[in-house]
Amino acid sequence: MKYTHLTSLLCLFVAIFFLACSDAPEIAEPTCPPEKKIETKLAEAPPKPEETLACGVVAAGNSAASLLKPWLSPQEIHALAKACRPVFRLTRMRVGKPYKVATLDEDFHRFEYAIDSNRYLEVVRGKEDFPAPIKAFTYDVKEVLVRGEVKGSLYAAMQEAGESSILAVRLGNLFGWEIDFVRDLRVGDTFSVLVEKRFTQGKFKGYGHILAAEFTNQGCTYDAFRMECSGKVGYYSRDGRNLKHAFLKSPVAFTRISSGYSLKRWHPILKKYRPHYGVDYAAPVGTPIHAIGNGTLRVVATNRGSGKHIFITHANGYQSGYLHMSRFARGMKRGKKVEQGQVIGYVGQTGLATGPHLCFRMKQWGKPINPVKVKVTREKSIPDSEKEAFARLVAKLRPLLHAGIAANTPEVKEIENKG
Question: Are the CB atoms for 306 and 271 separated by under 8 Å?
């Protein structure tokens, strides 16, 4: 009875416990919130600064300060000019030379000035200074065959061939000792020139090297081939003779002699007889005058009789004189060294002169000599060690003077001009 009572109590307790559990609220299993997709948007790169070019040509009265004033302060212009001084003084900028100013978002970035056809000055704004190197122009270069026939003058023949008179002058200087272009030129003479033509963005920028040339005068054919020997570039005939002489045959191209060397000549202004120790070349005002040989400027001066004149001392006691110039070439001053063919001045009518001409004179060891009778030595021919290489060069270039097709070379090639 006792155990029956205990059993009943135990059953009652168990029933109450299960009933209580069934009424309790259900506890949900913990769940993680759904993952949020985080979209990471990369920040856009700032736009590159836009470069703008302001191009122009140096005009009369311009200076570096006036050209750069819109973008730089006076202090910055002074710092820029000081940075340029070791390589190129900005006071040497010349009228007619092109320049560029590049800006980035309207702020000064770069200044360029064309020193000559080969080099330009580039000044860039740095963090603290203005680096100012001189650089070489880069050109697209075409090797072109130019052919022509003389019907009057070499100038006219070259222009008829579609080329500049500059190429006529260079051709005349090249064959100047082989052909007298004033007295010996004949109608029907022909020429062929393989020359480099330089281009920038499709615009013609001048001639490069003459690679080979041929000129037929009165039935005789003369040729020239450009080759470097022992570090020096020269022009040689196909048999290896050097076309260069110690002196040019004439200091001005394609001009006639209006008055010769004489010990007694009537002076049209002084109205009396006196020696004329020179040769007069009639030419238009402004015609370039070339130094006949390497030498040093001994006199660069002006006086009543000779007008603007220059005297050059050469090797072996020679001296050359150039009288009645209209002006000197830039940079001509006493003591300066000049090279054969370099322009030293321009034909004029200064001093005692009745018309525009160049009075050209020569002396040897201080004694006047007739310029047209000077016996001038030829430079050295191709050395034996280079003859085989020269023969290969002639075999390659000579056919091109007649075919007009550049063999084994691209028609157009981009090169850095080395001057």
Answer: no
Residue 117 neighbours by CB distance under 10 Å? 15
Structure tokens at 75: 């202090």
Cβ neighbours, 10 Å, residue 283: 21
Instruction: For residue 272, give every residue at least 6 positions away whose Cβ sits within 8 Å of its Cβ, in sequence order, or none.
Output: 266
Range of the domain at 365: 256-373
- Tens of pLDDT, residue by residue over 239-257, are 999 998 889 888 998 777 8
For residue 157, the SS3 value is helix
Residue 287 has pLDDT above 70, yes or no: yes
Residues in the chain: 419
Cα–Cα distance list, 69 to 63, 64, 72, 129, 407 (Å): 10, 8, 5, 18, 52
The answer to whether 118 touches 137, Cβ cutoff 8 Å, is: yes
7 belongs to a structural domain = no
Give how far the C-alpha of residue 112 lies from the chain's centroid of Cα atoms, to the nearest Å: 14
Q: How many CB atoms lie within 10 A of CB 179?
A: 22
Does 125 map to a domain?
Answer: yes
> Structural domain tally of the chain?
3
Which two structure tokens, joined as six digits, stand for 417? 């001009």
Token duo for residue 114: 């064309």
Q: From 17, 123, 106, select the one nearest 54 (Cα to Cα).
A: 106
CA 161 to chain CA centroid, nearest Å = 24
Identify whether residues 236 and 385 lie together within a single domain. yes
Are residues 185 and 279 part of one domain?
no
The tens digit of pLDDT for each residue in 309-360 reads 999 999 989 999 999 999 999 889 999 999 998 999 999 999 988 889 999 9
Task: Answer whether residue 342 is part of any domain.
Answer: yes
Domain-terminating residue out of 112, 136, 160: 136
CATH, residue 222: 3.10.450.350
- Beta-sheet pairing, 307-313 with 318-328: antiparallel
Q: Is residue 5 situated within a structural domain? A: no
Q: What is the dihedral of CA 37, 38, 43, 44, to 10 degrees?
A: 10
Is residue 221 a contact partner of residue 215, using CB atoms and an 8 Å limit?
Answer: yes
**Residue with the two structure tokens 């360029």:** 112
- Does the predicted model carry a pTM greater than 0.85? no
**Same domain for 239 and 388:** yes
Alpha-carbon distances of 97 from 72, 112, 115, 117, 309, rounded to whole Å: 21, 11, 7, 10, 27
| Contact (Cβ atoms closer than 8 angstroms) between residue 309 and residue 324 | yes
Which residue's entry shows tokens 């006792």? Answer: 2
